[in-house]
Amino acid sequence: MANYPINYHLYTFFWNKYRPVILKLMVDSAKEPQQYQFIQHEFKDINPKEKGGHSFTLQIFNSKAINNIKSSVVAQDLLIMLEKSKKSIELTEEATYELILDKHFMLQVSRIEQEATEEVETTSEEVAEDTKPEETETVSK
């Protein structure tokens, strides 16, 4: 009996087919979260016995997953496709994106602004530091 290599990238062709749609969703998510409904049979035809189902959550920044996707081959193949896209690389350098495929095959794409969160934290720390020296000076006078 011959040993045949296992195809680890079952979903890569599928994600490449939908690359323009996914990139448009990522661009449009700057205004508001976006959704796209996939057809169930497309996933089930690729791998009907997918353990754990096809649903996943992928958070991506600088073309790298920032959450654990080791248990989802579907998410890993999506990440491979995004890593090869110039537009995706540009987008993920600016912000974090969260892509969620639910059990009903609805893909939800959200843009999470990291810089805004960091600026708010820095501003509140600066305000706290600025008020402390003034209080000390007032007390010592």
Briefly note the structural class of the backbone. Answer: alpha+beta
The gross shape turns out to be globular
- Relative helix content: 40-55%
Biggest β-sheet: strands ordered side by side in the sheet: 1-5-4-2-3
Radius of gyration in whole Å, from Cα? 22 Å
SS strand fraction: 15-25%
* SSE series: HHEHEEHHEEH
Summarize the biggest pleated sheet: 5 strands, antiparallel
Low-confidence blocks of residues? 1-6, 116-124, 130-136
Number of helices, where a helix is a run of at least 4 consecutive DSSP H or I residues:
6
Number of strands: 5
Total separate domains: 1
Distance between the termini: 91 Å
Give the mean pLDDT.
Answer: 81
Q: Which SSEs are present, and which pair or pack?
A:
Layout: H1 12-17, H2 19-28, E1 34-37, H3 40-46, E2 56-61, E3 64-65, H4 73-83, H5 86-94, E4 96-101, E5 106-112, H6 114-140
Antiparallel strand pairs: 1-5, 2-3, 2-4, 4-5
